[in-house]
Amino acid sequence: MRLFDRHGRRLDEVSYHPAYHELMHLAIDRGWHAVAWQEEGRGGHQAHVAALYLLTQAEPGFCCPVTMTHAAMPVLRHSSRAQARWAPGLLAWDYDPRPLPATEKSGLTFGMAMTEKQGGSDLRATSTRADPLAATRAESLAATHAEPSDDGWRLTGHKWFCSAPMSDAFLTLARTDEGLGCFLVPRFTPDGERNAIELQRLKEKCGNRANASAEIEYRGAWAEPIGAPGRGIATLLEMVQQTRLDAATAPVGMMRQALRVAWHHVRERHAFGRALAEQPLMQAVVADLALEVEACLALVMRAARAFDGAARGDENERALARLLPALAKYWHNKRGPGFMAEAMECLGGIGYVEESPLARLYREAPVNSIWEGSGNVICLDVLRVLRRHPEALAACWQAMAPARGENRRLDAALAELERLLAEPAEGLEPRARWLTQRLAQCLQAALLVQHAPSEVADAFCATRLGDEASPAYGVLPSGSPCTALLARIES
């Protein structure tokens, strides 16, 4: 963190390792932050998720600013002025890390600053204040939901967590007389001066060291409003829906990287006279890990497909897009830390030391579970969607319908789910985690039944939905097709 230059003037900058910039070039110069919008409805969201899955395997931390920049676009669409001013730079295939006004740059990145100390996940507790620069305010704004027409606002307050603090602009919440509003806070003001956004400190996190999460202070920072007054949370939730899908994808990429490290090791490492990969118990563990990756990847790609369908105006896919990101984010991140620990154990002692990437992945694993809503928040959001949007559950049943009758364990699990969902709504909250987990697993199973070889789908249903299901990896039923599962690691 570099707070001042040699003359004592404020810089509020973060210096990164050169590899961070190389990775940002790898992603942004190839358009992976923009493809969802430039090819929207034509597979763009699927291309973005596929790229994120691959990029995460290089380094998860730098994917945060890529995700933030990607996810800012739906918020910009709430303001024609902001979209005209910022969207061209956001969509540019050019990573430009220079700290300059947006008009002088060839490409722009976006960050987010919402969390405050007293609120956490309760965004309605936001205390940051926004005051208009205009001498007078039109009292009719709240009633008409029109956008303010003045030249800017001043923000004052503290943000406990700011993602990607070297971004060119930040989306944030602040309190106005009309309620909580959504604001865009640029790094430089319209007159080219550094905005009054002060870095307080960089977070000493458990992992995720490549991304310099920060605490910041707005000291009368210039900002422009986005969307209707008093509707800031609703406006920003469109960004959150995008980032949740990315937060569901990142653990799958990390799982895949950990699987490759473990598989390479057990093929080369010999013990008791033969390679570890030839020993039945090790085969069962690695095959089960491979099964998890395949099921999780199927679910995030299906969610991305729903986003593309929604962009084409398909109401059934729009309904699915409301539900699938939350299901996948919750369940994939609950599986992640245990997955990393099991992969680490495949290596033995060398897996626990820093020369192996598994120690880093193990520290990284919890972050996406916490980011954009921890487990309880996500499960309560699933209940909210099921209550307010019954068409989302109907679309979910429809997506699984082709798999019915193909696997008895899946059929039994779906019948159990139907019984649970028929219970009174007030009794579901204590079981929200089980409901979310089971719905995610059934979707994974149904996708594998429809699209994967039968030995993969059958093994998944037996190990996740059957009587022999276990929370531990490597507990496969007798006769499981380990050889076929292991062969798919290389495919």
Could you walk me through the main structural features you see in this protein, from its secondary elements to its overall organization?
By secondary structure, the chain is α+β, with helices and mostly antiparallel strands. It has two domains: 226 residues, Butyryl-CoA Dehydrogenase, subunit A, domain 2 (Beta Barrel), CATH 2.40.110.20; 253 residues, Butyryl-CoA Dehydrogenase, subunit A, domain 3. It contains 18 helices and eleven strands. The strands form three sheets. Strands 3-5-9-7-6 form a five-stranded mixed β-barrel. Helix 9 runs antiparallel to helix 10, helix 10 runs antiparallel to helix 13 and helix 10 crosses helix 14. About 1% of the residues have low confidence. Keywords: FAD, Flavoprotein, Oxidoreductase. It comes from Halomonas alkalicola.
Class by SSE composition = alpha+beta
Radius of gyration: 24 Å
The share of residues in extended strands comes to 5-15%
Can you say what the CATH homologous superfamily of the largest domain is?
A: Butyryl-CoA Dehydrogenase, subunit A, domain 3
Overall mean pLDDT score? 93
Order of helices and strands: EEHHHHHHEEHEEEEEHEEHHHHHHHHHH
CATH topology name of the largest domain, in short, is Butyryl-CoA Dehydrogenase, subunit A, domain 3
Low-confidence stretches: 135-141
User: What general outline do the C-alpha atoms trace?
Assistant: globular
